Amino acid sequence: MGDAGANLVWRGALAYLAVFYTDTFGISAAAAAMLFLVVRLSDGVTDIIMGMIADRTHTRFGKFRPWILWSAPFLGLFMVLCFTTPDFSETNKLIYAYVTYIGLTLAYTVSNVPYSALMGVMTPDDTERTKLSSFRFAGAFAGGLLVMGFLPELVAYFGAGDNAKGYQFTMYLFAALLIALMVTTFVSTKERVIPHSSNEGSLKTELKDLTKNLPFIILPLLATTLFFYYRDVYSGLFFVIVMAAMTYVIKKLLNKSQSSLTSTQQDMVDLLTNKPWLILLGIGFLTMMFNGIKYGVIAYYFKYQVADELMAGQYFVALLVVSIFGALATGKLAELLGKRNLFIISLVLSGLLTTAFYWVPSDNIVAIFAFGCAAEFFAAMMPTLFFSMLGDSADYSEWKNHRRATGLIYSAGTFVQKTGGGFAGALVLVVLAGYGYNGMDESTISQSLPGMQLLMSWIPAAFAFLGATLMLIYPLTSVMTQKITEDLAIRRSNV
Known about the structure:
With 495 residues, the chain is mainly α. The chain has helices at residues 2-25, 29-55, 65-82, 90-122, 126-159, 163-187, 203-213, 215-230, 233-255, 263-272, 275-305, 311-337, 339-355, 365-379, 381-401, 406-434, 445-455, 458-471, 478-493.
């Protein structure tokens, strides 16, 4: 239920916000693009901050559950505000969009980072976590199915020709449903894993310490984003200088004695020396690039290759239905094959099935749906396994360092979801632009068709194959994970 609610925002508000801004609210595409870039940068920072705050929260309801409850009304409120169309000047409209969109993403972070971490403390058993993750992403795909299948129709029904009114009233409905789902999630879950307590300072002290270390989080993210978007000599030079400086700082940090580290710095050291977590961070980014590129080019592919724009909606629905079955099958298959092995298999098979689009004729609708749904069945296992394995990396950190930062570790999951999805969308546009695509000039369409074919096939598949290669060095086998679980159970029983 929690993921179904979250995806009313993730696949609903955020998926349709760009077209709402440009076609209904009246913001230029260039201004909207800059807005998304600024918010993407702030998102990466707030995820990490929220992970640290959640880890340092202590209430009678637990560390993570209260945030799900507290954030629900604000998340619903900003969903509605983002899709409200006030009669402002062009400048004031842009200011309103910045305030409400940042408010929405901040409320989503406050809700979703603790929600993601909740799975890591509901059970100490890694097999149960995989099953929980299966249900979680089945709910996520069901929430996405609700939005993809009904949002345009609801806008038309409530608006009766007035899209501004239609979007606003649709968001009233989704906001009410979201709050109900989040409250149910809070009431019906329990935190059972009590992390080993450490000598942490007050939350105020920790946040002050974190503020001093924020440049080390912001600068690499800023450098990477600028280099990706602009790809010129200056952004490339800035990227190299920042990464060299960060490498130097990280080496100095790792060489410090533990007694001289602040709590925030110790968290960073724990993460930087957590090999499973570092590998999962790369895997999360690669899988989001794989899935994000595939989803990002579908509308173009059906509009220009298949020549049936409305069929894209049917294809989305088919993929999301198959995704539910893929997510639900993950738990049983992981028991039989092991999570690491299943992840590799899902990456390879989904990648191979995706490459088939390069040879499938655009008029063979049956083959398009068959290969797309088959690839999506295995692709749906990737986020399910990823978030389950983040819990394993939190166990590994506690087992190795006698410290557990569940919220911080899981914040990486939401971080790579947002950044990977953002970079995937940008890459789609970069490739199309490279082939000369201009949506306002029909004469450029034919020359861009090969680019669309590559974006549906080899380009996303390359990220899947890279992910499979990286997963080969993932150290937490089923045997190792079981040993960590047993050792931690003994250690916790002796506290």
